Amino acid sequence: MNFVVLYCIRNQYEMIEEYIFKHSPCDYSKVDILIYDDDSSEEQIQKLKDLVSKYKNIEWINENQESKPNPVLSSFQIADDYLSKVNKNVDWILFFENDVFAFQNNFWDVLNENLKENKFLEQVGFIGFSSYQNYTQGIKRTNGSPTIGRGCILDEILNTPHSGWYKDLPNEWYNVDYFVVEVPNWQSVCVNRKLFRENIEIDFDHEHRLLSVDSASHQFMIKGFYNIVLPKLSVYHDSGELKKDIKLSIDSNYSRSNSSHEVFKKTWGWSWGYRNQNLRQEFNMNFNLYTDSIQSKMFNMKVSDGPKRIEDFE
């Protein structure tokens, strides 16, 4: 496989066996799993050590290191450093939130086949997937599901039924092998190691998780690299259906940061999210920042234009 799996976890190591291994149709023993611990308790650290001892394909990559702000992007960087240190020759890091797992039994093989595409390695920073939220219904399109990505600047993406997400799209969007997005659904994203290392500056003012991948996606685009999704490759993101019966330590503020929206606006010149009724005007006011960029071209496209490939931007 030309990728490794990465999880960034705080205090919920029960999810590995009781949720991911138990419910995913994929065989996780076939992939290498890296874990970045984000300042867990001593009791949870012991659970992590037990997992590492039990499973030969699980590695704790930041042992004896202090966790950093902006934990998701920091986990990408530490994973890349670790892979270089151990001479693991893979080009991609497949990141999952701990309540996300691969949702089709051939996921590893199909992803690996897609990663053989040279233009992806040379031109794509992030790759995302179709994220489903109803485990019982499986891979079935319903209202609001799957959510494939997040968007603000593509015309019509802020309108209902999309409301800032690549969801409830016309049928043609789901029938292509890939298309360009503003931001993949960040809970599951494949990271181009080389392009991340060479082009992404981690903003530690994004202290927590919110909008960190969104900002990095814009860094890729402003430097001429694309973010894409593979709509026919599916993951599952649990909203409580499966994990409700697992005894977990819950920190409702963990994925949130009161300052993330302010940091994003300071960096990119406009307020993120469909609730911002002036978003397109704010982007226009800062258009000089985006001259000849992927963002400027995306801004002049519409959802109703259909899915776009890399060559449509060139």
Walk me through what this model shows:
- This protein has about 325 residues and is of the alpha/beta class.
- It has one domain (about 5-314): Spore Coat Polysaccharide Biosynthesis Protein SpsA, Chain A, CATH 3.90.550.10.
- Helices cover about 30% and strands about 20% of the residues.
- It is built from ten helices and eleven strands.
- The chain has helices at about 15-25, 40-55, 70-85, 105-115, 120-125, 195-200, 210-220, 260-270, 280-285, 295-300; strands at about 5-10, 35, 60, 90-95, 100, 125-130, 150, 180, 185, 190, 225-235.
- The strands form two sheets. Strands 1, 2, 3, 4, 5, 6, 8, 10 and 11 form a nine-stranded mixed β-sheet that branches. Strands 7-9 form a two-stranded antiparallel ribbon.
- The chain starts with a strand and ends in a 15-residue tail after the last helix.
- About 40% of the residues are buried.
Quick overview of this protein structure:
The chain has 314 residues and is an alpha/beta fold. It has helices at residues 14-23, 42-54, 71-85, 107-114, 118-123, 193-199, 212-222, 260-268, 279-285, 294-299, and strands at 3-9, 33-37, 58-60, 92-96, 100-102, 124-132, 149-150, 179-181, 183-184, 188-192, 226-237.
What does the secondary structure layout of this molecule look like, with pairings?
Elements: E1 3-9, H1 14-23, E2 33-37, H2 42-54, E3 58-60, H3 71-85, E4 92-96, E5 100-102, H4 107-114, H5 118-123, E6 124-132, E7 149-150, E8 179-181, E9 183-184, E10 188-192, H6 193-199, H7 212-222, E11 226-237, H8 260-268, H9 279-285, H10 294-299
Parallel strand pairs: 1-2, 1-4, 2-3, 6-11
Antiparallel strand pairs: 4-10, 5-11, 6-10, 7-9, 8-11
